[in-house]
Specification:
Structural class: alpha/beta
CATH superfamily of the largest domain: Zn peptidases
Shape: globular
Strand content: 15-25%
Length: about 475
């Protein structure tokens, strides 16, 4: 009996992702093929219940305490006091390191906590009035399988008042960006008792308000030392739910991502024109991964994917990593309130200006932190993304994908994803087992975009790899 049809497409193509992941014996009448039999091998779980434990452990009270502590340093301007124990960026970064150290001590030294220093001079930028040490604070949990493979969550240490070079005026920076920094600290707590195959880094970056200097320095170190970075989750403002547009909303967030790497060659860009891929670079795939995590593990927190590097005309600390060729995204609240950003604390015409603690929703900030921790955990448990993905199927009633086997003991097999060419996120998927060559019968290559992910025995998946080549004739 033939499969029912809808708009001239096989019904199996339109089935939901969960059904497709069950690796049905065949997509039509007739006996199962060899590749179907291979796919019928043990299917990994669709969820990892440990992620639910991580998400439920996120504490609004701890996040609130950390935000209040950071805001309590008065100002964390990049040029502010570095000697005082109670005021300025020096006191703030020492407290952050001490907090990371306490978390590490409680888990038996599971984190390596370091300062990462870079000197920025007045010759580097007119926004730097004098030579200044930009000091990042990192908590590093080394991977047991691939220690040189990194997943990174960052928040910003520094704050600012109306003037970015004002080192004296109070600038509590409660939401921008004590919320993101508190999120990185809380994520360190949430992940402390787990062991990961890939290395996890929780980072406090400095000098953001004067030109993203902390991120620039860390990206340079990563490039020079050959870090294999899966992705950077830059959290910049994750605690405000009341927008300047008058909307109050606590159940959505935005994730910004560049479409393709700026480091791509002209040859790669020429391929996009013929084969597609204009919106399928590593950072965009990372954004889709974050969105999928929210849908799967975070109740009532809906992702909004923004097809843009960052807010219009503005920047964040994922950009230096993107500039160096690494995948990175910005995760933040949906509705910004500009009266609470980059403002001296004051009241004018009945409007209260200033980034104070009263403008932060701690429950929302904790859920955003849980989202980050869940994403980090999955990526740190998952095997690497497949390399060498190529695709073929011109003038055929099927689409074929081939890829290089991932050399990692955690690999259980692979999953193929596809979506309409106009869809922002992956719509369908199919578990294909431990193979590196698979043909999707009944799917015409012209009408969809495709990708491949590696899947671990625990069900955690890599970021999807988009095909970057065409299968040679005769292969």
């Amino acid at each position: 009996m033939p499969l029912p049809r809808f708009r001239n497409r096989p019904f199996a193509v339109l089935a939901g992702a969960a059904a497709l992941c069950l690796a049905l014996p065949a997509w039509g009448p007739g006996p199962a093929t060899a590749q179907d039999q291979a796919a019928a091998a043990a299917v990994p779980p669709q969820i990892d219940t440990r992620i639910y434990d991580i998400v439920s452990a996120a504490s609004p009270d701890r996040v609130e305490a950390d935000i209040r502590m950071l805001a309590g340093f008065g100002t964390r301007n990049t040029f502010s006091d570095t000697i005082s124990e109670t005021r300025g960026i020096g006191a703030a970064r020492r407290w952050i390191k001490a907090e990371f150290d306490r978390i590490s001590e409680a888990c038996g030294g599971c984190y390596e906590v370091i300062y990462l220093n870079g000197l920025v001079t007045s010759e580097d930028s007119p926004r730097i009035p004098q030579d200044t040490w930009v000091v990042n604070v990192l908590a590093i949990k080394r991977g047991t399988v691939n220690p040189n493979t990194y997943v990174i969550m960052s928040g910003d240490i520094d704050s600012r008042a109306s003037s970015g070079s004002d080192a004296v005026t109070d600038a509590p920076g409660a939401n921008d960006n004590a919320s993101g920094m508190a999120g990185a600290i809380e994520a360190a707590r949430l992940l402390a008792d787990y062991e990961f195959g890939n290395t996890v880094v929780l980072a406090g970056l400095s000098g953001e308000e004067q030109g993203l200097w902390g991120g620039r320095h860390m990206a340079r170190v990563a490039a020079s030392e050959g870090w294999d970075i899966i992705g950077v989750l830059n959290n910049d403002m994750i605690g405000n739910i009341e927008g300047v547009d008058g909307v109050i909303e606590n159940n959505t967030f935005r994730v910004f991502s560049e479409p393709t790497p700026v480091t791509d060659t002209e040859q790669a860009r020429a391929r996009y024109r013929v084969f597609g891929g204009e919106v399928d670079g590593p950072s965009r795939q990372l954004a889709r991964y974050v969105a999928q995590t929210a849908d799967r593990y975070i109740p009532n927190l809906d992702p909004i994917m923004i097809y843009r590097l960052d807010r219009f005309g503005r920047g964040g600390h994922h950009r230096p990593f993107n500039d160096a060729g690494f995948a990175g995204v910005r995760i933040m609240e949906t509705h910004e309130n500009y009266t609470r950003q980059h403002q001296d604390i004051r009241v004018e015409n009945g409007i209260e200006y200033g980034d104070v603690v009263e403008g932060v929703d701690f429950d929302y900030a904790a859920r955003m932190t849980a989202l980050n921790a869940a994403t980090l955990a999955q990526l740190a448990w998952a095997p690497p993304s497949p390399a060498g993905v190529a695709i073929g199927g011109a003038v055929q009633p099927s689409t074929r994908l081939v890829w290089d086997a991932v050399d990692d003991p955690r690999v259980a097999g692979y999953k193929i994803y596809w979506r309409d060419t106009t869809a922002p996120r992956w719509q369908h998927s199919r578990w294909v087992g431990s193979v590196t060559d698979f043909t999707l019968e009944g799917l015409v290559i012209d009408n969809y975009l495709f990708g491949v992910a590696a899947v671990g025995h625990d069900g955690n998946e890599s970021v999807v790899s988009f095909p970057r080549g065409q299968i040679p004739r005769g292969r």
